[in-house]
Description:
Elements (H helix, E strand, L loop, with lengths): L1 H32 L5 E3 L23 H11 L2 H12 L9 E2 H4 L18 H17 L10 H7 L4 E2 L2 E2 L1 H10 L28 H6 L23 E6 L4 E3 L7 E3 L3 H8 L6 H15 L2 E8 L5 E6 L11 E14 L5 E6 L11 E4 L1 H6 L19 E6 L4
Parallel strand pairs: 9-12
Antiparallel strand pairs: 1-9, 2-10, 3-4, 5-13, 6-7, 8-10, 8-13, 10-11, 11-12
Helix pairs in contact: 5-6, 5-7
Amino acid sequence: MAGFLYLRSAAAEAEWKQSSDEYLRKLVQQVNDNPNLLWKAKYNRFGVKNQSWGFDYTPNATAVQEVLDQLLAFFDSDAMKRHIQELVDFPDSSLPTHFDARLKWPHCPSIARIPNQGGCGSCYAVAAAGVASDRACIKSNGTYKASLSEEDILGCCAVCGNCYGGDPLKALVYWVNEGIVTGGRDGCRPYSFDLSCGVPCSPATFPGAEKNRICVRRCQDIYYQNKYDDDKHYASMAYSMYPRTMTVASDGSVRAQVPTIIGHLNKTSSTPMNIVQIRNILKKEIALFGPMTMAFPVSEEFLHYASGIFQPYPLEDLDKRIVYWHVVRLIGWGQAEDGSHYWTAINSFGEHWGDSGGNTPSVEQAIQREVTDDSSLTSLSNSCENRITNAMHDEHS
């Protein structure tokens, strides 16, 4: 009887896989057959359909009032007032049509680095560590070139998240409070999760990674430059650009508004900011201070992205195709031949995914949707809000 059940299960699994492959190949063909789209897809055998993964986790486990209180304090600081004034004083007319942080700061190799999160839903930690590395290098005029450790965030920041997802803003607050040690292959805390499970790895691999996720407050044996505590690098403040809320109750029943730069500018303006004005503030932030994180919903077709300016297609039933929420690192922007604007992003699926690991999501896709939960892996609605967060590096770190 047990053997019979096993065979039925295997047959059902094979039937599901065949059906999924046929569906996804058709989706790829739909994209490539549309002459009006500005991107191309290529079938990726590691792509998956939206489904219930059955994870045993608490979506709002990262809820904490103290983080919100600290963000409010950061926003009331003189440093933030100077930061906002610098954005306001930068003339819109000085913004170039195309911008690439890799070209402006070529002495900072971390900006061009394409990470691979492997079999853990750690995009929030990977993107936050990337932003921290980029901004530390930029602030130091290229004298600090180390890659900061996503492993340190993932293992030791209790309120940031886990292998089922998390919040990059909380990871950047952790950078301020606790500091982050060096990462990379030869740093204090290298990334330890399996990279061989796919490009990208399926969420089905995340539970196994979560079981092995631990906090280790010591450097790997080959790293002898510093002890763990001496290897920490700190920021002076963390902040959000685009209006969003944050869960402050573990059951998800209480959400609070996070102070944001665009929210502040909207309140102090005689008229609400339009999408062009919002876009320009985000561009100024990148051009003046460096890359920042962005969260967006990954639809099934995105996993088959090959090149071009991505936008979800088809728009019908988009929410039914959302596989998970994902966080990437924005490093620039541009303008397509038809005049449409786009962001240039560094993904965390490794160098063999997409256009050498990067992608260019359309600007409207990037800033018009909203996040409904603090987890990267959550169902979403059409009334969600995007998370664009970053941190300012301390001059004395």
